[in-house]
Design brief:
With 93 residues, the chain is an alpha+beta fold. It contains four helices and three strands. It has helices at residues 9-21, 26-32, 38-50, 71-87; strands at residues 24-25, 54-59, 62-67.
Length: 93
């Protein structure tokens, strides 16, 4: 399993919605994240795409975003990253 650039708390929130709705246009995702302006959601989608966690496909002239990694895979990679950073890779003290 490869390493993944850590996701921010906000990016995790976007991913949770995307895992439920994918493939989904940015506007539909923004509707599910009313705490943020739609432009903020689009910015987070671009960041997630740069991190290699999501991608998009043009369908009928509209970009539909979808995850490249499952939720379980992202959680596993985040856990591995945490263990490496905090415990130097060891599970026991």
């Amino acid at each position: 399993m490869g390493t993944m650039e850590p996701l921010s708390d906000s990016e995790w929130e976007v991913m949770k919605v995307l895992w439920q709705l994918a493939p989904s246009p940015a506007n539909a995702l923004a509707d599910q994240l009313p705490q943020w302006h739609p432009k903020t959601v689009r910015t987070m989608l671009l960041r997630l795409q740069k991190k290699g966690v999501i991608n998009n496909q043009l369908t009928n002239g509209i970009q539909h975003f979808y995850p490249l990694l499952s939720r379980e895979d992202c959680e596993s990679r985040a856990t591995e990253s945490f263990i490496k950073r905090v415990f130097d890779g060891a599970l026991s003290p």
